[in-house]
Protein: Glycine--tRNA ligase beta subunit
Amino acid sequence: MPDLLLELRSEEIPARMQRKAAGDLRKMLTDGLVEAGLTYEAAREYWTPRRLTLDIRGLTARSKDVHEDRKGPSTKAPEAAIQGFLRSAGLNSIAEAHVHSDPKKGDFYVAHISKPGRSAEDIIAELVPAIVKSFPWPKSMRWGPASAKPGSLRWVRPLQSIVCTFGPETEEPVVVDFEVDGIRSGNVTYGHRFHAPEAITVRRFDDYASKLEAAKVVIDAERRKEMISADARNLAFANGLELVEDEGLLEEVSGLVEWPVVLMGTFEDTFLNIPSEVIRLTIRANQKCFVTRPQGSEDALSNHFILTSNIEAKDGGKEIAHGNGKVVRARLSDALYFWNTDQGDLPDLDTLKRSAEAFGLDLKKPLDQRMARLDHLGVTFHAKLGTQGQRVQRIRGLAREIAPLVGAEPKLADRAAVLAKADLQTEVVGEFPELQGAMGRKYALLQGESPSVAAALEEHYKPQGPSDRVPADPVSVSVALADKLDTLVGFWTIDEKPTGSKDPYALRRAALGIVRIILSARGRLPLQTLFDAALRQLEEASVQRKLAAFEASQAAIDSGDVDGEQDVDNALAAYEAELRKETIDRAAPLKADLIAFFHDRLKVYLRELGARHDLIDAVITPEADDLLTITRRVEALGKFLDTEDGKNLLAGTKRAANILAAEEKKGTAVADAVDPALFSEEAEKALFAPVNQAVSEAGQAVRNEDFSAAMRALSVLREPVDSFFEKVLVNDEDVAVRANRLALLARIRAATDQVADFSKIAG
Structure:
């Protein structure tokens, strides 16, 4: 079977685009080949900074001939229908169609369509140019004189050559001939830009890969990553150091070089006074270099860094390492300046007194100054939700309310909430936004804050993803919940909810974070209570803003007019009452919608943990707002249904529920209560006592939140329910007996409904 080799060589492709672009190329080409009637055994993509490559093995040499009989309209059909049939079948006239007969439907047209197969070379020559011209780069460009012409080729960087060879392993492959915007396909590529810029003639992939490696190009990105990682570890170890692993940086660096050469650079020890996170980010962001640490150290860094060059220098890389060291030192000098500046006083302290008083800040402390400035500058959080300062006030009030619920000291929660966003005004976070929170913690410890307060400044952002850890300190928990609740409830009040795949404010992530925090806290944190607290903070802030605007609108009244002042007071009181009533009226549907949103997030989370979706649906009710209780119910129900008693009881209770539902739908009478005097069968007598016992004991167990005990209480129903359905006819001819037996089924449903809606469980 023939193999296909395709290479698209260009100037340097941005590293962040390479992996996806290679995958897109493989999918577009293989999909196109299959659609054209070809098959293949395997396909693999490769990429370097200067090329995208495809190796497709076992491609069929020719597509099959296609024969198709396409049924058309009746011979008596209108002309428009016949013309439509001709167009769809590719016929020039109705004379080219055949007439078939059907005993019932009469005569109708049939088109016998035959399409001869095509050679793979013709298909490839047609397909590749179309893919190149429509390639989905995030950003692309035009270049050269041809760029002035409409419809000229766009590519991520100027496309320089195309290799396209096709043929079996036992024969000399042929060049698939085509042209893309003046670039003709061939069998010639080029090696490393500096080490081996000469032309290289290639045949098939194995030949291509080996010749490129000889020309200082490693085509396999995963192998380049392994080379960089292994060489970096070995070089660090040889110098008594450890490499600080960074998978994201490794991916990026492997996309910057075709022939990786690992070197070591240094900077002055004095820069190690900067926090390690800042050093690492400075070197990573500006020079794409790895940092190292002394062997056995977890936090402290060394003054050596690892860089990856794209050339083998004659001096062993000394000048390259020296040049990178100069740039690193310059960048670290900036970082040191930011670090020192953040610990000093702000130049505009006199303008911050009002904000300091509003938040109870101590302007002798650097972090307090930054919080005062954040409020003073009126930095907008959202146009409809106020400034960052106003948001911090809401989070502050909310954190104080939540603190007792999670075992935190309210004063510490208050202090942590006040300082939570202060580091947004620091120089380091301004340069490296990803350090928000982490720098707040460091600056808080430097100015003598409680360790719990300092931890909350970093941890209140967590968890930021499914693999991120959940805050454990009670102060961190209270501020993290307050921060996320204010965001969610706030955006719900202004009707900015996620829609479809769009979630610009990351509200799904915030809700999932709250779910994980609540479940990790293992405490009682009903959502209704949390929503009410968040709404109170938002309501007060909203009312105050609107009242201020209303007062301003009444400024036209003469200040010396007593009646006018009285009118203003009355109007303000009426307006305030109206605003608060408006908020109350909106609260109930808003909270119901939010609870439904949290239920969806909880379902996603529990399914990821392995819970069955039908068990979750069986347990959740629209008003259920205790996430921990829901989770415990699901766990207990799952364990119970894994037992033989559980499986059999499920079948029996579903049968009871189905019979009852069917009779209720028909309007059949169901007794209000079960009357033992109407029992005529031993099986119904034997069921009556256990079902009453199950209703009582399961209900008490649910009230005690002992769901395992509730399941055990239900398990006694297994045998009597089975016996009842085996020996008793529910739809007895006697109306009173039938109504009584249906009431007994209703008692079974009542017993199980205390735990879950068994009708929603599969099985």
